[in-house]
Write a structure and sequence with these properties.
About 25% of the residues lie in helices and about 15% in strands. It is of the alpha+beta class and about 90 residues long.
C-alpha cells in the first residue's frame, strides 16, 4: 500500500482505496464500516457539489455505500515498498 497504510486506514477518503480494501481485507473493511456508522463518520469523498453559498463541498458516504463495481486502482500504487528500506536487499552478507 502507498505510504505503508494499515489495512482500511480511516484517514483515507478515496473511494478507490476503500474498494481495494473491501476486496483484499474484507474482515477489516466490515469492522471499519460498522465503526464508521456507529460514529457517523462518512469516510469516503465521492464527489463535490456547490452549496447555496457558492462554495464547493465534498459529498461524503460510508465505505459500504461504494458501488460493488467501483475501480480498485490506487494512484501511486507502484511505490516499491512500505518504507524507505523495503525495496533494498537486506540479506546478510
Amino acid at each position: 500500500m502507498p505510504n505503508g497504510n494499515c489495512p482500511c486506514c480511516v484517514k483515507s477518503s478515496s473511494p478507490n482505496y476503500w474498494a481495494h480494501q473491501r476486496k483484499w481485507f474484507p474482515e477489516v473493511f466490515a469492522r471499519r464500516c460498522e465503526q464508521a456508522r456507529r460514529f457517523g463518520a462518512r469516510l469516503v469523498i465521492i464527489g463535490q457539489e456547490k452549496g447555496l453559498d457558492g462554495k464547493r463541498r465534498n459529498i461524503r458516504i460510508f465505505p459500504d455505500e461504494i458501488p460493488a463495481d467501483w475501480p480498485i486502482d490506487i494512484k501511486a500504487a507502484d511505490f516499491g515498498g512500505c518504507g524507505f528500506h523495503c525495496a533494498t536487499d537486506t540479506k546478510a552478507a
